[in-house]
Amino acid sequence: MMIKEKRQIFIFLLFALVVLLVPIFLKGSYFLNVLVFIGINTLLAVALNLLLGYAGQISLGQAAFFGLGAYISGILTTRFPVDPWLALVVAAGCASVLAFVIGFPILKLKGHYLAMATLGFGIIVYIIFNETVDWTGGPSGLSGIPNLRLGPFVFDNDRNNYYLVWMMTLGVMLLSINLSQSRIGRALRAINDSEVAARVMGVNARMMKVQIFTVSAFVSAIAGSLYAHTITFISPASFGFNFSVELLTMVIIGGLGSIYGSFLGATILTMLPEFLRVFRDFDIVIYGLMLILITMFMPAGLIGGIEMSIKIIAEKIKGSAENNA
Amino acid sequence: MDNPSQLVQYILTGLSNGAIYALIGFGFAIIHNATGILNFAQGEFVMLGGMFTIFILSFLNIPLPMAIVLAIAFSTLVGILFERLAIRPLKNVKPLSLVIITIGASIFIRGAAMLIWGKDTHALPAFSGNEPLYVYGATIMPQHLWIFGITILIIIANKLFFSYSILGKAMRACAYNAYAASLVGIDVKIMVLLSFVVSAAIGSMAGIIIAPLTMTSYDVGIMLGIKGFCAVIIGGMSSGLGTVLGGLLLGLLESLGAGYISASYKDAFAFIILLLILFIRPEGLFKQKETQRV
Amino acid sequence: MLKVESITQIFGGLTALENVSFSVAPHSITGVIGPNGAGKTTLFNIVTGLYTQTEGKVYLGDKNISFFEPEVLARLGLVRTFQNVELFGQMSVLENVMVGLHTKSKSGIFSCAFKLPGQIKEEKRIKEKAYQWLEFTGLADSADVTACNLPFGKGRLLEISRAMAVEPQIILMDEPAAGLNSRETAGLAGLIRKIQELGVTIVLVEHDMELVMDVCESIIVLNLGKKLAHGTPREIQENKAVIAAYLGED
Amino acid sequence: MKKKFFSTMLFFVIATILFVFTAGAQAFAAPPIKIGALFSVSGPAAFLGEPERNTAQMLVYEINKAGGIKGRKLELVVIDTQGDPAKAVQGANKLIKDDKVAAIIGPSTTGDSMAVIPVVEKAGIPLISCAAGIKITDPVKKWIFKTAQNDALAVARIYEYLNKQKIGNVAILTVSDGFGSSGREQLVAHAKEYGIEIISNETYGPKDTDMTAQLTKIRASGAQAIICWGTNPGPAIVARNVKQLGIKIPLFMSHGVSSKKFIELAGDAAEGIMLPSGRVIVASQMPNTDRQKKALLSYVTSYKNLYKVEGDHFGGHAWDAMMLLKGAIEKAGDKPSAIRDQLEKTTKFAGIGGTFSYTAQDHAGLTKDAFVLVEVKDQNWKLVK
Question: Less CB within 10 Å around the terminal CB: N or C of chain A?
Fold first, then answer.
């Protein structure tokens, strides 16, 4: 057991080290900019994974919390003289309060009904972004959102934004990994496996689900706020149903319940348009196909696939070594 | 224009949209009741119906009714392929995987349609002319009569099929208890496949009869599918009168909401109703007895 | 200890339980028997808060626990096992038992995420405690196995270990011997007695008459939703109505 | 075991595909002058991005066939923004830092344009947006130009006509997306100066399939004309619904539907509808004295020859952007700052969208003369004189 925990800490430190060193090698490359978006998407995917991978509760309305974070932050800093950091905190707070309130009735629903209810919630929020033109700027968007700053240090270029976003992302990843191996994480996974048995063991399933839904909204809203302050322009189109599905795809492709899987999924989906430049227009077909095939044949996602391949290769090597000896 | 005829117009508009929602809702209910799956790709059948008809018409020089029959056949084929390739091989039948697979299928079908037919919107000629009919100072298109007529026909056919035919009864048996059904010799797999066939056929039919009014393109399926789902939830997951009432109610609320409150929030009304019903009365407004499931 | 007062349960016109009352003495082992469809599992589901009864009351000690949610009942010391073994399949055996210790720990989402010192200490305590319970049921060797890979018999034991981890006053077991071979069943009888020695009251629904007659001090017989008899194993064995119900005579 | 094997196989297949695609994307070598293009080729604004991309690619092909610019070939790097600001910013960064383009044309939508402006301004690369939003070039930004006509110009055309017809009370029905909301803003903002009162202000959703409810409300308001602002297919449904409801007052559309597609979709219901449009759809009807006629005819014929469909004025925005760039590069070389300075000196460039004259104070470059009013007659566009 101790070995397993040590290994996990080692993997995380290695991952964090790579993340921190990457900008040195990518100086001046546009790829750094892509990595900023990968960071934001990883945050979002981890947030959804907490809900979907751990607790087994689907949400097709994640983009709404992302959007709430972005819009609350954007409106507070453009229409009022609010400091961006304060706006970020307020945005995350508001989104979590909303999630907490709607969490009780929504998470009473299961399976398909939960999927549809969260979808409905997402669309309602999207319509509000679109129609409250006086606040959000409506479909034409909200521009001129200020960058975050720490004293004289302004987060207005790729390198600075990279560190800003990835510090947050690494933090959330670490906390999520911690969470998964704690009492709360076990309770959530127990709900995922058998809600009835979990309740009989004294797990307050409803409260637990609402809690993790709230946390998920909180993280998504932070991602939204970071997004708004890095890109400085937001419009409702980024927070629609399609993006919720994209997030779902990230989590499924990467691997349900795996935090690094969420990173992998976010990376692939953020980079896919790059990969597919030769075959443009094919991306939506490929998303669909990936969702189907991975759910059917690789329930553990690509991370599961990688782990399995490593195992098989390791066995092969071991086997051939024994043969040679 | 005086107020009463304005109201009549809202009601007519609402009812005709509602009939469409009901028809799409049927497709959901049939698959859900036979398999427990909520097919998120249902809206794509609606899209396929319209698109196939338009492209058959433009490639083959055949009369409209022939094209419609062919289009329904092709859409049904897609439904069969979907069931055989993505639903039946699935071993791990958790609702979550089914949600994801049907979402995946919906994206895939939509994407394929875009690649094959392009992104343009297309119009189908109306079945019987474009001259509006007047009803108490309000108007309605002849195509609306087709929609009402076909909806009624499909309700009746459904009722007859599920109440009197052996196949329909077998499908209902599966819906109650698949295991027990298999014990009395019903091939459950065939019944599941059949539910996809029927539902794809009805979905594409809906897509065809609305195409002359609303036009069609590769991405019409999402919103129509979701509205159909709202109808079926309001009606309580039946493929009978409940869903029809659910659809009509939804259509009416939308049209009256757009007319008297705000058109901008028209869709929001639909979803607020959906959420309220899911929260307060998840079994639907018109659900009668447990025995009326199929 | 546990008192059930005129429970009636009607499912859409079908009466599953009708006016059933009984009480269970502290530290006793009580068996609930009856032919299929007698309403045994329904009774368990009502007592453990999974079903809402149409009428009637349930008391735990002096406390009226009718309509309590299962998670509240667990905190009050009432747990159960399931007929079809409801394990947390994707988790390890040890983790399954650690979920059983949920009510015995307090760390919130915040201290768990940040691994505050209190949480680390608590986690260590829970883990040790969970090992103890695995040793109690003899599963300690399988601690790291993923639960869904356990053989059926061990799954039963795991479910019992998990329930015991809640440190219940009373444990309800739904057909604990179903699917076990005779050696495993004998082991189970021993385990049930061991649990009783810890001062836990036990109620079990069981079809294995040998086991029931062997371990139970008192037996309740249900038939077609009604209580038919309540007495010692000997009294039950001699009860005419019970014999008739089992043999299908009128 | 078999399943495990299959899963492993699947994993390798996916991994290989991704690898091949990356490798493939890297394999293109870098030829002479690189021009970046950000178009929303897919997504909800594909109706803009697709013709724009087609036009830009067509022009690059033609220019290169004619020997390029001063002997140097052009290379167009197109990035699909999918109408998503984040992808637009990502794309702009790639074009600037990876492809090191000399200039950028696009994005197609106002949203995407607003999102990439900070990036492009910082990098100091000239960008010619193909979106219409007034805020793109107002206030003027050093490196940002645009070719699409401001919506205000289209509004002015309609309002002038209404003044001539002595129509004072109008109803507006706009789509709730970027295009519609910008139109709505301008319609409301300029009504007063033309003495027009908007007595009914309705919207519809981009995916709506029936607008009779809104139109019934409009009919009851007593408006003397309806102005509908949207892009296909919504306005076609509006046209049909107007006909269905028997509404007899004049119906105006926006330049958002100035393509044959609209007439095809609306069918009979399109008859008599008027709209402000770029000259491209009535190119052959323009008098020979029109400065733009030559450009218009050349664009219309070559687009039709290459793509077998009619070119529209959205593609025209890309045509203008590309030709403006070509002109600037011919005169000033391929240094971004030189291109920018040269662009700002553009005077009386007769393009598809109008006659452009950029100055240090005006990076939009058009007057309301860029729009003409057209009417649908016998299933065809007819210039209203």
Answer: C
The pLDDT tens digits of the residues spanning B205-247 come to 999 999 998 889 998 998 899 899 989 888 887 767 888 899 9
Judge: D7–A297 Cβ closer than 8 Å, yes or no.
yes
Which residue from A241, A180, A260, A237 is spatially nearest to A212, judged by alpha carbons? A180
Q: How many CB atoms lie within 10 A of CB B58?
A: 10
Same domain, D165 and D273: yes
Sign of the alpha-carbon torsion through B107, B113, B118, B122: negative
Contact D95, D36 (CB under 8 A): yes
Q: What is the model's pLDDT at position B287?
A: 62
Query: Could you say which architecture CATH assigns to the domain C2-247?
Result: 3-Layer(aba) Sandwich (3.40)
Written in H, E and C, the secondary structure of A139-154 is HHCEECCCCCEECCEE
pLDDT at B294: 30
Whether D382 is covered by a domain: the verdict is no
| Euclidean distance between CA atoms D264 and D310, whole angstroms | 12
Q: Which structural domain range is residue A219 located in?
A: 30-324
By the 10 Å C-beta count (0-12 exposed, 13-18 middle, 19+ buried), A150 is classed as exposed
Average pLDDT over residues D248-254: 94
Please report whether residue A115 resides in a domain: yes
Measured from the Cβ of residue C183, the count of other Cβ atoms closer than 10 Å reads 9
Q: Does residue A280 sit at the B interface (CB-CB below 8 Å)? A: no
Q: What is the DSSP secondary-structure string of A282-316?
A: -HHHHHHHHHHHHHHH-TTHHHHHHHHHHHHHHHH
**Structural domain of residue D237, as residue ranges?**
151-277
Candidates D177, D200, D216, partner chain B, best to mutate (most B CBs within 10 A): D216
Closest CA to C207 of C32, C56, C43, C57: C32
CB contact under 8 A, A305 and D94: no
ipTM of the complex: 0.89
Q: How far apart are CA C161 and CA C167, in angstroms?
A: 10
- Find the Cα–Cα–Cα–Cα dihedral D259, D265, D267, D269, rounded to 10°: -90
Residue D138 and residue D155 in one domain: no
Three-point CA angle B5, B9, B10, nearest 5°: 120
Q: Do D209 and B224 touch (CB under 8 A)?
A: yes
Q: Which residues on chain D are in Cβ contact (under 8 Å) with A158?
A: 93
**Has residue D291 been placed in a domain?**
no
Question: Chain-centre distance of CA C235, in angstroms?
Answer: 24
Cis peptide before B212 (omega within 30 of 0): no
Q: Please list the helix, strand and coil fractions of chain C in percent, rounded to the nearest 5, in that order.
A: 45, 25, 30
> Does residue A104 sit at the B interface (CB-CB below 8 Å)?
no
Tell me the sheet residues that pair with D105. Answer: D37, D128
Distance from CA of B16 to the nearest CA of A (A): 23
Positions of chain C with pLDDT under 50: 250
Nearest-Cα distance to chain C for A128, in Å, is 32
Distance, in Å, from the CA atom of D385 to the CA atom of D382, rounded to the nearest integer, reads: 9
Interface check B133 vs A, CB under 8 A: no
- The Cα–Cα gap between A69 and A86 comes to 12
- Phi, psi of B221, rounded to the nearest 5 degrees: -65, -35
Name C203's bridge partners: C30, C172
Among residues C215, C217, C212, C216, which one has the least CA distance to residue C246? Answer: C212
DSSP assignment of D247-284 equals: --S-EE--GGG-SHHHHHHHGGGGTT-EEEE-GGGGGG
Structure confidence at residue D36 (pLDDT): 94
D166 and D264 both lie in a single domain: yes
Domain boundaries, chain C: 2-247
Size of interface A-C (CB pairs under 8 A): 105
Q: Any idea which residue has 């972004």 for tokens?
A: A129
